[in-house]
Amino acid sequence: MPPSRMAPYSRTVFPSPRDGRVVGTVARTRAASPVPAARVDSSAGPGSGEGRAPARDPGTPEEVPAASGDAVPDELTDRYGRTVRDLRLSITDRCNLRCTYCMPAAGLEWLPAPGLLTGAEIARLARVAVERLGVERIRLTGGEPLMRRDLEAIVAAVAGLRTRRGVKPDIGLTTNGLGLDRRADGLRRAGLDRVNVSIDTLDPAEYARVTRRDRLDGVLRGAAGAQEAGLTPVKINAVVMPGALGERAPRLLGECLRRGWILRFIEHMPLGPRESWRAEEVVGAERVLEALDSAGFELRARGRPDRRPAAVWDVAAGTDRDGFHPAGTVGIIASVTAPFCADCDRTRLTADGRLMTCLFSARETDLRGPMRAGASDDELIRIWAEATWRKPLAHGTDTPGRAADGADHGDGFVRPARTMSAIGG
Ligand code: SAM
Ligand code: SF4
Question: 421: Cβ below 6 Å to ligand 1?
Fold first, then answer.
């Protein structure tokens, strides 16, 4: 890089490998811990009764502190002192794409329709989370959330809630963008704040190869429609794949800067079909930065603002192979090479109403069953709080670097029973 381009932007751009890691995390003592009410363990395996095996997380101590009196928890806090503020709601497991890193070519056996949470059930759980448990941000995801016709109604129900601070929860949508241009206005009017659109490459043939569908034009229309409707800032999620990175990554960044979209690269996690992921093929943050640097982008590290998952770099205005690009930012979510578990304030609900406290949880906790059996809000809260208390320390395990299910995966990752589309990314 010529010296003139070095200032004021430096090339010391890598996040600390310990940034957000859990290595030094100390478990809270019992006395210092919040006390969710003790209750019979309601955990069940994914889709139990639907042909999927229950799974226990043997690395997680079972002990849950006893409740003081009949107190109902008012926060979701775990043994390591992390408090949930962010709820990821998967509203469907279906999808109209078949991204290789997420789903098999033939798709999956979809959850039967009666098993999916209804709009009213989703709204109820969102209300409990926001009004009783201190959740401030809700992200609707899937599968492909636009495949639900009642998405606008779900957004409107969530938008009618008020957080402890008396404001509307922040509502985001993660989508592949297909058909978003036609629904963006309605979603905005319903109360949606922002969207993340997944676009891994701007090369139509490569896009068709990765998603197994030739739909790049429609996706770009969707992202542009969201921007016009004011669902901003539009963020673009790009899973980083090996091969042609030096071409793909700079092209994506230049185009996003020109269009005013915020690009975030995501390291490929072992959450798709088993054969689709190999540790040695993961393209880490470092290689993405090298590719951008080699293409002439001037980057300045900002770290992880607000301790959010993405490490952020400022990008100086400049010129790339497609012409001038304005200044902006780029993010990298280094879930594999620099996980941020210590700062994790998320919890997840699958489309069939199961809690997953971590993307890599081996344990799921059923909320749909108790809800349909007539559980009160207080009872749901106790189940939710108890499951949260047992949230694993890191990526599905309480022993970083070792799989919680005891199986030797050879890469330190425990695989959840579901793939990403069924969990909700
Ligand atoms: N269908 C929507 C979409 O693609 O944006 C929402 C669901 S998708 C599961 C949510 C996000 O997870 C997407 O940005 C997708 O790229 C990402 N994702 C899926 N599988 C992944 C994997 N194995 N590793 C990293 N990210 C993945
Ligand atoms: Fe569908 Fe999203 Fe999975 Fe791609 S990443 S297959 S769009 S759910």
Answer: yes
Of 212, 319, 201, the residue nearest 263 (C-alpha): 201
Q: Is the CB of 141 under 6 A from ligand 1?
A: yes
The per-residue DSSP string of 185-252 comes to HHHHHHT--EEEEE---S-HHHHHHHHSS--HHHHHHHHHHHHHTT--S-EEEEE--SSSHHHHHHHH
Would you say the CB of residue 123 lies under 6 angstroms from ligand 2?
no
Q: For the chain, 425 residues long, give each residue's pLDDT as a single digit of tens.
A: 333 333 333 332 333 323 333 333 323 323 223 333 323 233 333 333 222 222 334 444 556 665 555 789 999 999 999 999 999 999 999 999 999 999 999 888 899 999 999 999 999 999 999 999 999 999 999 999 999 999 999 999 999 999 999 999 999 999 999 999 999 999 999 999 999 999 999 999 999 999 999 999 999 999 999 999 999 999 999 999 988 899 999 999 999 999 999 999 999 988 877 777 788 888 899 999 999 999 999 999 999 887 888 999 999 999 999 999 999 999 999 888 888 888 899 999 999 999 998 888 878 999 999 999 999 999 999 999 999 998 888 776 565 544 444 444 555 566 666 777 777 66
State the ligand closest to the CA atom of 239. 1
